[in-house]
């Protein structure tokens, strides 16, 4: 099974279906299931605020609320997605 490491809160947004694009400097022709690994780095409050702004700008609402930095799962697999 393939996996990709993503920092929080971006991994949380992806797993919850709120972020559907992940930009990388490398290309992939792979399509199919991928596990999302959350890095072990604790997100900053600024990163959480940026993620909340993205939700507000894209959905026009403040719900769901992005969790506080200490609530995120870190250093492991947090879910799976499909690259299409």
Features:
2 helices
Low-pLDDT ranges? none
- Estimate percent helicity: 25-40%
Q: Order of strands across the biggest sheet? A: 1-2-3
Spatial shape? globular
Sheet of most strands: 3 strands, mixed
Give the N-terminus to C-terminus distance in angstroms.
Answer: 16 Å
Q: Please indicate the percent range of residues in DSSP E strands (runs of 2 or more).
A: 15-25%
Query: Taking Cα atoms only, what radius of gyration do you get, to the nearest Å?
Result: 13 Å
Number of helices: 2
Please describe the topology of this protein:
Layout (H helix, E strand, L loop, with lengths): L1 E5 L3 H6 L16 E7 L6 H15 L16 E8 L1
Parallel strand pairs: 1-2
Antiparallel strand pairs: 2-3
């Amino acid at each position: 099974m393939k996996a990709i490491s993503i920092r929080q809160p971006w991994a949380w947004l992806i797993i919850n279906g709120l972020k559907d694009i992940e930009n990388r400097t490398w290309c992939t022709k792979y399509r199919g299931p991928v596990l999302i690994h959350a890095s072990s780095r604790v997100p900053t409050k600024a990163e959480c605020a940026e993620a909340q702004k993205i939700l507000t700008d894209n959905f026009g609402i403040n719900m769901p609320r992005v969790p506080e930095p200490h609530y995120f799962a870190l250093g492991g697999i947090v879910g799976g997605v499909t690259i299409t």
